[in-house]
């Protein structure tokens, strides 16, 4: 857990107020930590020393919604779940969803380039965010809040701020493309006998469900044990080494159900899947999703958690979990793997009763070197924040890191925006 000791939190209501705050801080060299819902997992929203917290909590207004194009324009402090409800009432959905939806802000989502549970279907925020309004370190308001699908006029500056974790500017408003709300959603929860079968089920799934597949998530038996033990959730299928959550979203219930049934017949018949259940109603679908979405919460109740969020070639996604289980043996309480298998994103988590330097030494830099050895990413979707900033070099060459420092110096020459975050500490 990252802890700071800030004495000031400011909660502006408008971009103009953010601009005045930043101009003031820039003139006086005061460090500022932008903060959304404070749900980030790498300490980016937590002041390290005495940074002023600039919270978007009161910037929570929807500016406009176009019911033909599905383009939503809103302030950065809108809570994701509230936006989801807002667009669903108008027959659209947000292109992203994540377990922290009840607290995280859309500005925080964009600042971290959050991936989440709908990435497989709707892709990255780098595609769905159409425009941003950003206040720069010196208080300049940069209005790139367009709502155009296509715009090749010059450099696409908004991309610089997507995933910049509050180090290059404060995002004050977002224009985002929302897909139509699918008329039919099906959720299946499956048990698999091994990881090889998980991979084959994924291939079969892509082949048979193709255009209606909207999520392919996995969790191992250790995760299931934790959600049962700490959250008293019920396992709806036979105990298995791996579990899969498959979601389809489409426009015809009859067509989708038939396709899903054929897929289930195929994977159950061939032994790739040993047991499965399908949600017949919304509340069962939510109960199945809870098994996957609440793993983070269950882990936090298991003791001290070492969290790793890795992109890896999908065939090797689970190798590191098995390797670490053997390597750490009794040093760890649990070594578990879950994540967005459809996106090649593993969440590797290790728990212990309390923090242990010996366990940390056994994990790092081993996990990062292992990942770099397979040309993976040491942060697939959570960012680097405070906790992971020194791992950047495992996934980016020195020339890229150098260029990042140059961009930082250009946009924030006095280094007031979220210092100590994202870019590595310099010797
Ligand atoms: P914060 O935590 O407040 O801030 C995160 C970073 O963004 C900080 O560096 C902060 O300085 C910066 N920031 C915040 N707002 C702004 C702004 N307006 N302008 C500039 N910078 C800003 N992430 C995923 O990618 N996929 C998941 O599936 C996922 N699931 C999660 C599930 C749980 C239970 C939890 C607790 C977290 C999960 N996350 C996931 C982590 C994820 O990064 C965040 O939940 C979310 O995107 C952060 O939004 P926030 O508003 O809470 O931002
Ligand atoms: C998830 O997919 O559940 C999140 O990214 C949170 C986590 O990794 O714990
Ligand atoms: Zn995730």
Describe the structure.
This protein has 427 residues and is of the alpha+beta class. It folds into 3 domains: 62-177, Uridine Diphospho-n-acetylenolpyruvylglucosamine Reductase, domain 3; 184-295, 2-Layer Sandwich (Alpha-Beta Plaits); 302-379, 2-Layer Sandwich (Alpha-Beta Plaits), CATH 3.30.70. Helices cover 34% and strands 22% of the residues. The chain has helices at residues 15-28, 80-88, 106-112, 119-122, 125-128, 158-161, 195-209, 221-231, 253-269, 282-293, 295-300, 319-328, 357-363, 366-373, 392-395, 398-411; strands at residues 9-10, 32-35, 52-55, 62-66, 71-75, 129-135, 141-144, 170-177, 184-192, 213-220, 242-250, 275-278, 304-311, 334-340, 345-352. The strands form 3 sheets. It has a 7-stranded antiparallel β-sheet with strand order 12-9-11-10-14-15-13, sandwiched between helices. A 5-stranded antiparallel β-sheet has the order 4-5-8-6-7. α7 (195-209) runs antiparallel to α9 (253-269). The longest helix is centred in the middle third of the chain and has 17 residues, at 253-269. The protein is globular. 46% of the residues are buried. D-malate binds at residues 99, 295-296, 309, 339, 347.
Q: What is the secondary structure topology, with strand pairs?
A:
Blueprint (H helix, E strand, L loop, with lengths): L8 E2 L4 H14 L3 E4 L16 E4 L6 E5 L4 E5 L4 H9 L17 H7 L6 H4 L2 H4 E7 L5 E4 L13 H4 L8 E8 L6 E9 L2 H15 L3 E8 H11 L10 E9 L2 H17 L5 E4 L3 H12 L1 H6 L3 E8 L7 H10 L5 E7 L4 E8 L4 H7 L2 H8 L18 H4 L2 H14 L16
Helix pairs in contact: 7-9
The structure holds flavin-adenine dinucleotide, D-malate (MLT) and zinc ion.
């Amino acid at each position: 857990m990252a802890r700071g000791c800030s004495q000031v939190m400011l909660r502006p209501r408008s971009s103009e107020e953010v601009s005045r705050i930043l101009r003031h801080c820039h003139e006086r060299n005061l460090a500022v930590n932008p903060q959304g819902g404070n749900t980030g997992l790498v300490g980016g929203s937590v002041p390290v020393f005495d940074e002023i917290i600039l919270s978007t909590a009161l910037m929570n207004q929807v500016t406009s919604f176009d019911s033909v194009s599905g383009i939503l324009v809103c302030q950065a402090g809108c809570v994701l779940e509230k936006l989801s409800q807002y667009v669903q009432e108008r027959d659209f959905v947000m292109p992203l969803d994540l377990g922290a939806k009840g607290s995280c802000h859309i500005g925080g989502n964009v600042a971290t380039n959050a991936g989440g549970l709908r990435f497989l279907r709707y892709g990255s925020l780098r595609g769905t965010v159409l425009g941003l309004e950003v206040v720069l370190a010196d208080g300049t308001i940069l209005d790139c809040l367009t709502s155009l699908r296509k715009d090749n006029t010059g450099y696409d500056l908004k991309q610089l701020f997507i995933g910049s974790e509050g180090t290059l500017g404060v995002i004050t408003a977002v224009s985002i493309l929302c897909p139509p709300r699918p008329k039919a959603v099906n959720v299946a929860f499956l048990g698999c006998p091994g990881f090889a079968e998980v991979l084959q089920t994924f291939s079969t799934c892509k082949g048979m469900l193709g255009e209606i597949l909207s999520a392919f998530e996995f969790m191992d038996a250790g995760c299931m044990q934790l959600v049962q033990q700490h959250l008293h959730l019920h396992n709806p299928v036979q105990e298995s080494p791996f579990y899969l959550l498959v979601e389809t979203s489409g426009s015809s219930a009859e067509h989708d159900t038939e396709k899903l049934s054929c897929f289930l017949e195929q994977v159950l018949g061939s032994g790739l899947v040993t047991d499965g259940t399908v949600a017949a109603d919304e509340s069962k679908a939510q109960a199945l999703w809870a098994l996957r979405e609440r793993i983070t919460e269950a882990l936090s109740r298991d003791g001290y958690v070492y969290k790793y969020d890795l992109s890896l070639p999908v065939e090797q996604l689970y190798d590191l979990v098995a390797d670490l289980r053997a390597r750490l043996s009794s040093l760890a309480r649990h070594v578990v793997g879950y994540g967005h298998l459809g996106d090649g994103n593993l969440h590797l988590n290790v728990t212990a009763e309390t923090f242990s330097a010996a366990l940390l030494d056994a994990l790092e830099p081993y996990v990062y070197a292992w990942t770099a050895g397979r040309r993976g990413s040491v942060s697939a979707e959570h960012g680097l924040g405070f906790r992971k900033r020194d791992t950047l070099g495992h996934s980016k060459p020195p020339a890229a890191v150098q260029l990042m420092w140059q961009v930082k110096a250009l946009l924030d020459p006095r280094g007031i925006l979220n210092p100590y975050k994202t870019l590595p500490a310099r010797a």
